[in-house]
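Hi all, long-time lurker, first post. I run a small reading group and we've been trying to get comfortable going from sequence to structure in the token notation. Rather than ask abstract questions, I figured I'd post a concrete chain and ask someone more experienced to write out its structure so we can walk through it together at our next meeting. Sequence below, copied exactly:
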Amino acid sequence: MAGRVNLANLCKEALKILADSDDPIKLIEDAKEEAGKEDPWSRKDVFVNDEYGEKLGFPGMFRDFIEYKGWKIIKHITPLGHYVLIDSNSIVYAKYLGPNWRGKNLQLFLELLISLAPIKEPTMIIYHVVTDEEEEIKGGCKRLTEENAYKKFPNSIDLGSGFFAIHPKDKKALVPLDKFFSKIAVNQQYECVELLCKMGAKSVHITTFDESKDKKGGQIKAGSKELNFEAGMSINSELEKFSELKVNFKGISDFTPDILEKSVWFKTNGEMKSILKMRLAKNTLIEQDVTTEVNETFKFDFKAAANVLGVVEADLKVDYEKATKQKKNFHVIFGE
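-- Answer (accepted) --
Happy to help. Here is the structure in token form:
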């Protein structure tokens, strides 16, 4: 490879990639394989638990060259300029010849390793909302007072002190980190109720089904309730608590033709579009079903969230699995 490079910066970049990689060994092996195709180089791999010891196969003096999060590239002082790659557990993963032998083997290896690294999606931002000015902020989080949190994310509900992530469909709202998926599901269900209310529905019968019960989905029986609803009224706790809910409306239309374009969850929902079409055509006698469900992770970073909350990833995945297995059916009735 032609051109002058800063070998130290190349080493730093490669070690950062290895330290943050989910599978650093595969990345190393892939880079070694590619390097072997392009240029002759040392293929003697050594796996030992001795940090600098003579078991490396060529005793002599060593000095640290670059280190990042425990990963090291160490230079062995010899006329040939050997370099050794050691991980955070002091295990040697690769031994290869440096730039003093037939050109640029180390540079070639590092450039290939960097080029082969998968591009990582940026991790989600976690906000630590505090109600006490003296409260210590968890590492890796962005600090927000409750007052500023509501200013920055005005669509948020019941923030209080705790850890939050940005709503995947509404950048003006925060969602509690520990119940991210269940809260997202309720948010979707609430918007469904509010849209039906604004379009002039008389009532909606909400039933919860669990897809894990059987192939068709078994109805969950965990209490029922009937209530009257007006736009803006909070029924999130009822949507969470009851598996069966009868919601009555006043039957008064209060919407514009672009109501779904302003929606968070139902912009492209076929069932809701069908209802809107009939309502715009002044059809008052409508009886139809709408289904809500959560069926993706929204790039939620389970590892980062578990680290902040001090739990294991499995705990957070319970909430995800529960939310994705349950569907809500909204049987809505319009009429005179």
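A couple of things your group might point at:
Residues 126-176 form one domain.
The CA atoms of residues 190 and 236 lie 7 Å apart.
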